[in-house]
């Protein structure tokens, strides 16, 4: 079954061409976690200088202490790598090389990950607040979760208080 959204609110904010969203629904599974649950956050990017800074700051600000941030860059030609060097002191692993698309890049990140939990946070995404990964890790331990699934709400980038649309994850089941 699904964990009620009220038990683990505000998982991720997503900006896609400007709008942001909030992920809230979790699905139960069999795997247990400990208080030291390590979360590998994989960010794939290509020429993402304009948006990657928000992503880097968002992951760096997380209060959960066991976070491994992995950046998989597709050989960017803009200032993406310089931005990571300037703002990515927390980044555990960085690779920059040509890939065969976003899923190839994601698989490279998974291959580098050492965490108990793997999260994908793309280069134009950011977490809703600095406690997201703490709530995720705690919920995964408490509820023995294997997977997370979220509702997504898109907001107007010019007026962040104005929701444009919402995708509901409630129709999906394990």
**Rounded radius of gyration (Å):** 16 Å
Number of helices: 4
Following the backbone from N to C, one meets helices and strands in this order, namely EEEEHEHEHEEHEEE
Q: Largest beta sheet: what is the strand line-up? A: 6-5-4-7
The residue ranges in which pLDDT falls below 50 over 5 or more consecutive positions are: 1-32
- Residues in helix, %: 10-25%
| Biggest sheet features | 4 strands, parallel
Distance between the termini: 7 Å
Structural class: alpha/beta
The number of E-state strands comes to 11
Mean pLDDT: 80
Q: Report strand %.
A: 25-35%
Shape: globular
Structure explained in plain terms:
The protein is of the alpha/beta class. 23% of the residues lie in helices and 26% in strands. It is built from four helices and eleven strands, in the order E-E-E-E-H-E-H-E-H-E-E-H-E-E-E. Helix 1 (52-60) packs parallel to helix 2. The longest helix is centred in the C-terminal third of the chain and has 12 residues, at 132-143. It is globular, with a radius of gyration of 16 Å. The termini are close together.
Distinctive features:
11 strands, alpha/beta, disordered N terminus
Short description:
Helix content is 23%, strand content 26%.
List the topology elements:
Elements: E1 2-3, E2 13-14, E3 26-28, E4 39-45, H1 52-60, E5 67-73, H2 80-87, E6 91-96, H3 102-112, E7 117-120, E8 125-126, H4 132-143, E9 145-148, E10 152-155, E11 163-167
């Amino acid at each position: 079954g699904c964990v009620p959204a009220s038990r683990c609110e505000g998982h991720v904010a997503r900006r896609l061409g400007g709008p942001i969203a909030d992920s809230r629904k979790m699905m139960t599974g069999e795997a247990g976690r400990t208080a030291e649950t390590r979360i590998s956050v994989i960010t794939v990017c290509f020429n993402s200088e304009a948006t990657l800074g928000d992503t880097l700051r968002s992951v760096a600000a997380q209060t959960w202490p066991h976070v491994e941030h992995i950046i998989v860059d597709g050989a960017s030609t803009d200032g993406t790598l310089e931005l990571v060097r300037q703002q990515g002191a927390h980044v555990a692993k960085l690779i920059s090389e040509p890939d065969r698309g976003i899923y190839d890049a994601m698989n490279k990140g998974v291959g580098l990950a050492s965490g108990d939990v793997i999260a994908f946070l793309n280069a134009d995404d950011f977490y809703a607040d600095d406690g997201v990964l703490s709530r995720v890790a705690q919920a995964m331990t408490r509820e023995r979760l294997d997977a997370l699934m979220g509702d997504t709400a898109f907001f107007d980038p010019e007026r962040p208080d104005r929701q444009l649309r919402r995708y509901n994850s409630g129709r999906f089941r394990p």
